[in-house]
Specification:
GO terms for molecular function: ABC-type vitamin B12 transporter activity; threonine-phosphate decarboxylase activity. The chain is mostly helical. The protein is built from 11 helices and 4 strands, in the order H-H-H-H-H-H-H-H-H-H-E-E-E-E-H.
Amino acid sequence: MALSDSLTILSLALAAEAAFGYPHRLYTGIGHPVTWIGRLIKGLDRILNREARSFGERRAAGILALLILLAATGLVAWALELLLLPLGILGLVLLALFSGTLIAQRSLHEHVAAVAKGLREGGLDGGRSAVAMIVGRNPRSLDEAGVSRAAIESLAENFSDGIVAPAFWLGLGGLTGAALYKATNTADSMIGHRTSRHEAFGWAAARFDDLVNLPASRLTALLVVAAAALHRGASPRGAWRAVWRDASHHRSPNAGWPEAAMAGALGLRLAGPRVYGDVRVEDRWMGDGRAEANADDIDRALALYRTACLLLFALATGSALLTWIIVR
């Protein structure tokens, strides 16, 4: 696929997904591409991840599972491109609608906004119930500030791997590139954990996900810094300073970049020690502001997020126009 086509598809996909999201009726009727990918991952896990095998054998099985997943996902997406590209503008529009299902701007905003609403209308219990839908940590361990920080951290991290990363690979590789990324990211979220069952089998998925998220996490941080420059009360200098100082100290090679940028922009401290299930994780703080976040800070983060999404759309659209000019 020509770069001009893939960037055009990206611009249209971002606009369509922001406007309409993924209709609930469609989800209940046929599911979602991520749920389809998830079923394949569950099947591969059930068939290939045998507990009787050695650690090395299970790691090799995990590599095989990832290759099968990527091959199956890539072939379906590539077939759709071959089918639709010859249709010209109509084909690009249809590919954009398919591609938009792999981006989550609207749903991320709705889920994080629900946490602020939960805190305001239902108090701490309402906030805990809402934040439990988007984070893996134990909600019972969170006070109001912890709930608010968790929501903002989830917003920052998922802006990177739920929006910027699939957009990045869509712009470079069309629907096939975005689908391959989404398959990798879904595999990491399902089997890329250091548990007794998945430490070996999920190793390949986790390491490959780290690799493919590297460029998007850095781009996300730059988008947040740029968005902060457009918001009164946000600090682009603070965002850049936090990224430079703190991002590399996060336990994830990628999550620290958007989290540090968001923390510095809003004058907050994010990440830090937290509890997953019954396990306390001693992570470094991102940012050097106040830790006592609240629902108003969630609103501030969402405003910054909306601006960063607009900047991403502008970048995609400008790049598409530039490539069309060069081609002509």
